[in-house]
## 1
Amino acid sequence: MALFRAVPWSEPAVPAIPGAGVVLRTPQMADYEPWAELRTQSRDFLTPWEPLWPADELSRAAFRRRLRRYARDLREDLAYPFFVFRIEDDGLVGGLTLSHVRRGVAQSASLGYWMGQPYAGRGYMSAAVAALVPFAFQTLRLHRVEAACVPTNQPSIRLLERNGFEREGYARRYLCINGNWADHYLYARMRED
């Protein structure tokens, strides 16, 4: 069930989502340079929490491919990617995605996010997640949003719990992070929470 009209990969397909001091909007080609700069600047900070980056991860061509994949995922109601910008200066601070959207009896999605190192610990991602939750439940009409967190990532654990996610379990070797299969805590938040 595609909720938004199909658009070329360079155009936003979902309205911007305002939050407390942040705004979430779908990535656009004009975001390439600030995205590549922030990801480059934050690489060492992000490496322990992310999958391995391909050799061309930060290239313009790879970003174009990313945008085409995002457009397809939006069109097919598979994922909803957003970049997070500070309202005060429209500066890019990070990104988050509702992925693995499941319809039918599940009505759920998985939440993933990243924060640029200069902006970590300032509340931007917490505000972004707080803004995204109503979009997931009211606009997308999901019943459940899931998240997974490496047990040593205390800031992420605090962020999820602060935003009403409850720990539901422990999954061994759940995701491949930085080239290794890593155990994760599993979290979820329901529409009625």
## 2
Amino acid sequence: MTIDPTLIKSSFAAVEPHGSAVTAYFYTHLFEHNPDVRKLFAEHLNEQQDRLWAALGTLVNKLDDTDTVVNVLQGLGRRHAGYGALPEHFPAVGASLLAALAHFAGDAWTPETEASWTALYGVVTEVMSAALTEEAAG
């Protein structure tokens, strides 16, 4: 499946009114299913939740601007190297992201929407992992 910007944007619009509840759900899901990654995060997640929400908004709003998206993702990948993130963490993060989006999107979450988000997250993983690995090797 390819990335369908219309499905990404319409499903994000359905999720957007829930704001910080989406990122709170994401972190709860992530830590419940992957308790070993909890140590990579600060005790209090308010600021981290805000940063995640801003990054998601940028990703969706700039979806048609490949250069900007790649630059943002490369920067995120480099920063995550300093937090101790590893490429093998990406599948767990993706599963929790999809779970959070599905939970809040309601009827806007269809199999096609999930496939499009999965494809988008594949690009996120590819770009961030490359930057993370390059930075860690640095």
## 3
Amino acid sequence: MKTDNSGFKEEKESFFTKLAENEMYRKIVIVVGLVGIALILLSGLLKNDHTEAKTVSSPTEISAEQYAAQLETKLTEIVTRIQGAGSAKVLVTLERGTQYVYATEEKKSNKTTQDKSDGTTTKNEANDNTETTYILVKDADGAQRALAVTEVQPIIKGVVVVCDGGDDPTVQQNVISAVTTALDISSVRVCVIKAK
């Protein structure tokens, strides 16, 4: 068995020796090595391009106006499907926009001082300090932003529905029921009117 290993070792050495001695083989090995390095660098660049594309395509925050417009579109689709309502236009008004609650860290410190003279206390003073700071996180691009804990959706102030069948009490009740159920608001906040 020792003779087999040494024979293989000699073949290996002779193969590498032939490669090292032949100038054409050395050039081929160098070119293959450079192509391999270029492919590694290229794959690194392609990975960065894909991650940036994913970052750009992530969902974005919507404004209060966009939120109201989305609700109006969805409610219009629902109302037009109610029997007798006909074509409809919907207006949604908001009390306030989207609010974010951010993670905070509080540091409290209490400091008490006493002035004593001749064994009797003459003055007591207490200082309570509270310092609140927002917890910051770094984005993928290195920018710092506050860590949002929750997102509070806008509060709906009222909904106006103008539809062809708005003068029919049955249609009015069906539209009011659909809107109040969809938005979880009271019927006092919904107005249904006949279109001209």
## 4
Amino acid sequence: MQEAFISDEEREKCRKVAEAFREALEGEDLVVLDAGRFGFVKLQYYKPPWGFDSVSTFLDAGTLFDDLWEEWMDSQLLDYAKDTPMVEMEYDQIFRCMPKEMQDSYVLKKQEFMEAAGCGFLSGFGRP
């Protein structure tokens, strides 16, 4: 019998998280794949012919959600700061420079991702 590193229940939760972010991260240089009994894998920064520069494995949906949220949020902040002096700032500094309404919209967007992923199982969550 093969050893499983992720439970069937947690695998299903991870699948929902990956699906919730699939479209939003479509233009990014990453892909999240179901690796079966090994969990979920995020492959990032593809460089032909060598492959991916970054490989991350996830065994729980909360960690996967947090990581994909960070990826999405970072891309939004970089887009916002593009062609401005803010591009040299840290992500949290860029966020604080945004208008309050825009900051609030990201908090709501996080809630939308959580609802799409069925993340009632997440007890807390990181930055907006």
